[in-house]
Amino acid sequence: MLEKGKISARQLTILVMLLTIGDSILIIPSSTTAYARQNAWISTLIGMVAGLLAVYMYSKFAKSYPNLTLIQVIQKAFGKWIGTIISLTFLIYFLMVSVGSMREIGDFVTSEMLPGTPIPATLILFILIMIMAIRLGIEVIGRASELFIPMFIVLFLIQTIAIIPQMEIVRILPVLEDGIKPVLRGAISITTYTFLETVVFLMILPYVNQQKMITKSFLLGTLLGGIVIFITLTVSILVLGPDLTTRDIYPSYNIARRISVGGFFERVEAMIALQWMLTLFIKVTLYFYAFVLGLSQLLKLKDYRVLSLPTGMILVALAPIIAPNFTYYNAIFDNYWVYYVITFGIFVPFVLLSMGIFRRALSKNLTSRN
Questions:
Q1: Which residues pair with 261 in a beta bridge?
Q2: Torsions phi, psi for 22 (to 5 deg)
Q3: Which neighbouring-strand residues pair with 260?
Q4: DSSP conformational letter for 280
Q5: Burial class (CB in 10 A: 0-12, 13-18, 19+), 369
Q6: pLDDT digit string (tens) for 3-33?
Q7: Contact predicate 301/81, CB 8 Å
């Protein structure tokens, strides 16, 4: 195996939780509320159930193909030529998620934190840290997540508790005013953008040292991440209302600006920025890692680390040009990305899982006949 490191079941839970939160903590409230309005919290609950079902499928996938990454499974299932084509499309998906997330980092920092800073300067600093993490391996990434999670939880609790006085329950009423259809459309958005992106763990599950704990850890991490997103979105609606939440690009960040406790604890939006940087770092690093590892397996290289620097430079180059502006990026994100994620997050894993189950059943049948 190209990767010699291992992660524990607890580290898997933390990584899944942080990746599930990812960039969703900033952008999901506005995108989901645009469809479901004040009922977006219901969309989150529906999306969480759908996400847990998808994650359960991923865990079954890992048990059907033990010790094999997604790219190795595709090669085994479809053969050399077709397998290579499908593998390349999956690797492009990993790369596109990484590039899109990098673009979000650049837009956020230059618009909210450091106006006037060139986007490439921000991206270069970010990518250098990711390259270092990837070269150190999945074991170090897992240990880093254990250091991040207490900091994230403390900051999240402080922010949520401090904003309670500004919440108004009337802002989530009336319930289901426009029927169930807008709620289901919002649920599709949150399922694809938040939960189906955990498909990247099909490249990482072979390196969990407690294989029997994969299902429990995977589901727990998804549930914890979903709860954080549910609280974030619900707080956004309770504080800002559905109209402001929809119009605001970063609702949760601007909620932090409204916090004022005793006239001295205020302007703490840096807390949400730090939370987002931690979760997005884990997300981009894991997708970056999956791309580099998968490409190395496809090319039969002896060491995946040699691809980390050139791939990092590709990310820095592509991120500013993936979309001419944030409006264009948002339009692609809302109208087309959902189908892209469903293809790689549900359809392909389901086909591979079905093939594995069929082959095992056929093998048992032949064995029993003999």
A1: 265
A2: 35, -130
A3: 266
A4: H
A5: exposed
A6: 778 899 999 999 999 999 988 888 888 888 8
A7: no
